[in-house]
Design goal:
7-stranded antiparallel sheet, single chain, alpha+beta, about 150 residues
């Protein structure tokens, strides 16, 4: 498959990660993302941990996206959304969703200067998107995740 790897050098470590609203409820946000992807027909979730904005795309409206603030996603009553089957043509198995989302959490807190600002999953294309604090942006095929996470 394809791997796009864009990276910039982080030459300064002057400003550590500033806690954001997402940091106060990251486990809840990751749980919400899991349910959206696994049970509610979302095929892509771009979880903003630094910008506090999450973008979700659903299979029944593929040309549109829903934007949620951290508070909106945290408080979203998922029971109000209809259940939809996991995409049959998904390149990312639904069994991989929990460990991938846990990886987002780990990358957020592994270092105070180089950390995850945004993590995205597109289960149909099989791409994982990672945006880091120092401008490092990675779009990686699910089969090549080891090349990004050392």
């Amino acid at each position: 498959m394809y791997q796009f790897h864009f990276k910039s050098d982080c030459v300064t470590k002057e400003r550590p990660r500033t806690p954001r609203e997402a940091d106060t409820c990251i486990d809840r946000l990751l749980d919400q993302a899991l349910v959206l992807l696994r049970d509610k027909g979302a095929y892509e979730v771009d979880l903003g941990l630094g910008p506090d904005t999450t973008i979700v795309r659903f299979v029944d409206r593929p040309f549109y996206y829903s934007v949620y603030t951290t508070a909106q996603l945290r408080d979203l009553d998922l029971a109000t959304l209809p259940d939809r089957p996991y995409p049959a043509d998904a390149q990312i198995s639904h069994d991989l969703l929990p460990p991938l989302l846990k990886l987002f959490r780990r990358l957020r807190y592994q270092d105070d200067y180089f950390y995850l600002r945004e993590g995205g999953l597109n289960v149909v294309s099989g791409f994982v998107k990672l945006l880091f604090s120092c401008g490092g942006y990675h779009i990686v095929d699910i089969n090549e995740m080891e090349s990004v996470v050392v």
